[in-house]
UniProtKB/TrEMBL annotation:
Name this protein carries in UniProt: Antibiotic biosynthesis monooxygenase
A GO term for molecular function: monooxygenase activity
Domain called ABM: residue spans: 3-92
Any one annotated GO CC term: cytosol
Keywords: Monooxygenase, Oxidoreductase
Pfam families, alphabetized: ABM (PF03992)
Origin species: Flavobacterium silvaticum
Amino acid sequence: MEKELIVKWKIKESGTARVLELLQQMATETKKEKGNIFYNIYQSEDNPNELFLHERYTNPQALEDHKNSTHYNKIVAEQIIPLLETREVVMVKQLF
C-alpha cells in the first residue's frame, strides 16, 4: 500500500533562502530512493515563506526508510527544522 503525505512548512523569514537551497539537495537525494514515487515541492504564491512538500512512497517501509536516511537527518532534521516556525505533516489518501 502506497503512503502519501503533504507537509506544510512556515519558514522563519530570515531562513527562506537557505531552506530553498537545502531543499534542492534534499529533492535530488530523495528522488534517488528506491521507494520514492515522487517528491514535489511548492511555494505559496501569497507567502514565499510557506512551502508545501507532496510526497509519495511505494509502501510504509519506504517512508520509514526515507525518514531514517542520512540525507533526511543531515538536511531536514539538523538544518531545515531549526529554521521553521511551524511544521505540519498530513498523511493523505487519494480518493479519485
